[in-house]
Design goal:
Radius of gyration of chain A: 21 Å
CATH topology of the largest domain in chain A: Tetracycline Repressor, domain 2
Shape of chain A: elongated
Oligomer: homotetramer
Largest sheet of chain A: none
Structural class of chain A: mainly alpha
DNA sequence: CATGAATGAGCTTTCATTCAT
DNA sequence: AATGAATGAAAGCTCATTCAT
């Protein structure tokens, strides 16, 4: 009936089967955790026998790594595809955040594998995610720098933009880390609370970008 | 010198033995992960036989839960002990953050169990941490509300305090989530980068509290 | 240059392919042992696909048996080809031993399959080698008998040949067993110690043939 | 009834259980071969569960090694116990051979593990046996040397002992190898053919010691 | 109070073997 | 003539958990 072959039909090319296996693996790893996920369950969910999984993906570790890489790439691609480099820094940031929240909401299992599972299970895997995370943090760092040069979020009623006090490099890095952490945290919360990607992005922009503006203008918090 | 007997001596009261076991368990869970940690290893590290662990703590699940509870309590207690309720909201916030960063740095295994392991391994455990997280988020929510009523971070040079536009409850909740996430992220980064708790707290105050001030004054980010 | 097509070229007559497979099998069985050798490895080493191995050789057991038969035949042929039946018994023996040591040194994998692997793995295979071994033992028995009739290894300085005391049939059989075992043992040792086939054959002739001569003359060892 | 507790009774000391396991393992390895022997089968034969085997002996490899060592020690001890160092070399040799044939006949599985299995399966194990074999070969070498010094098997009717031509060290080593190989081969044959240990020892003494005597007296085989 | 002895169940991994093309 | 795709069955090993003392 259907024009699409049933996912269960036998004898399909390797590339297709591999994707099916990784789909099943991501789902299983997300729900059970790396150790608790059994290759039996993954194979069954993929609709193939266990030996075939091993034939194509070699071991549980390699399968997990392959999943992490695929999901990391999909996520970064989704974010990068949303960014229009000619727009101002804040618009780029907003677009990136919106894409991030949208992607994580649409791929909760992939996000879980990246955010929870991969970072929890030792060095072979954590490094894979750290790389992705650092890429994003670097990008955010650049955006903050750009914003600083453009003159940023003017305080309403304040005199026009002026270059704020220099932000130390270490501070910028820390801010990027904080921002990424906030986004990660919000991603989990937004999905559970039924917040849309646009709302979440707006929320974080208000929170972070505005605060950033303050920093740019030299505002600092200190004990009174 | 010490009034405490050697940790290895036989025949000690149950409460002490239990703490030793949980110390060993927290360390093992942090290093290996919930599933990979074996009761054998925990018992050996605690210096007792395996049946004794079962006698006192019943099962791996209960042991893990007990660890989570203990560490969660220690963390929240550390934060709350640092807060002086009569101080202004921002000072409370700073003190809480400083205590948080200090405690996580001084108890990396406990923090790892809470932040990484517990949330990664299914419902019985994640709920335990969510509770703690929510407590903190609620507290932050209260602080923000208080700050809003007191009139907060005045824009330098702006006219004195004025009540900001109302912040929707949902927004406040989201901000709290973002703040907690940022703090968690910074906790990891700070420990690796050798940032002191005070520095990390200051960084986050500048980032968050300032932004918060903007929000209070009705500043919002939007597409131009 | 060569009239033989590359071993990797496609579409070659069955007989040739079969030999390639058996070459690969002998090598793999020798290096890994019967059980540890995988059909995958054999097929890959032979440069063909696994189903083709099954098409031609039916099963791992049959493949192993085929290897044993081929190697046993090659060995016995090598030994027999070296023997000139019109020569005296001792010269025949020497020539046979020399050929044996030479062949095992030049075909260590084949020898390993016969000597080590085949005898180690249950009845279907051990019988195959026993047959070959018995053939050789029988031949040695005949030689000894011939030597006995000819009057053999005269003690230097002793009066000419005289028919020795009768050797019981069972003794002759035992001697043949001992001789074959000694040869097998020397084959391994000689290869490792860099002893040439001629030297090894000489050594064994001195050892065995001389002793044999003593027996023929009725010398017997007994407690004093 | 029996004064001996049933081998199946539960809860026995570790040392006893370990011996039971090794008994079962030796039997299984001998009958099936190293690879084909399954830990399941060994455990069942030993009357214990598989985990207990692993608890005590760690792995299949270690279990195999332990078996090899135990059987090698038992064999060498049996041989050494039979030797009376004050007796002449030939009597020592005879006693050693007799003990060897007796022990291998009474412990066919242990002998199979040493002679067949251990040498067939790669380096960790073969080395263990080589050590034992070399010990024996060295001992034989010493005996041959002693015999040479004492003046040995006089040709009947020949004038009293005289020091034979020097035997090169390499030759002596080769002879020892041949002798050990012959004994190994005879051990298998004697067991199958119902030859007693004494008969087998006598056979080999006649064969080897007599030949040796010839060599000592300078007799050499050569092409005529 | 404390433990040495013991196991049922389940995991990852491998292999000989067969179809469908 | 030849192969890519696929699997049933079993093996080595580990673990949470319990008895008997």
């Amino acid at each position: 009936m259907s024009a699409v072959k049933s996912a269960r039909s036998k004898r399909m090319p390797r590339a297709v089967r591999e994707q099916q296996m990784m789909d099943a693996a991501v789902q299983t790893f997300a729900q059970r955790g790396y150790r608790a996920a059994s290759m039996d369950e993954i194979a069954e969910l993929a609709g193939v026998s266990k030996p075939l999984v091993y034939l194509y993906l070699n071991s549980k570790e390699e399968l997990f790594t392959a999943c992490i890489r695929r999901e990391a790439q999909r996520l970064t691609e989704a974010v990068q595809a949303a960014i229009e480099p000619r727009l101002p820094a804040d618009e780029q940031m907003w677009a990136g955040l919106e894409a991030f929240f949208r992607h994580t909401r649409e791929n909760p299992d992939g996000w879980s594998v990246l955010h929870r599972q991969a970072r929890t299970h030792g060095e072979p895997f954590a490094a894979e995610v750290s790389k992705m995370r650092q890429e994003i943090a670097d990008f955010v760092t650049v955006l903050i720098g750009a914003a600083a040069r453009q003159g940023v979020p003017p305080a309403p009623g304040a005199a026009g933009s002026h270059r704020g006090d220099e932000l130390a490099h270490r501070d910028v890095e820390g801010l990027a880390q904080a921002l990424v952490g906030a986004a990660e945290s919000l991603a989990g919360w937004a999905n559970d609370a039924g917040i849309s990607a646009k709302e979440a992005a707006g929320l974080l922009m208000n929170f972070a970008w505005t605060g950033l503006g303050g920093l740019m203008r030299g505002e600092r918090w200190s004990h009174r």
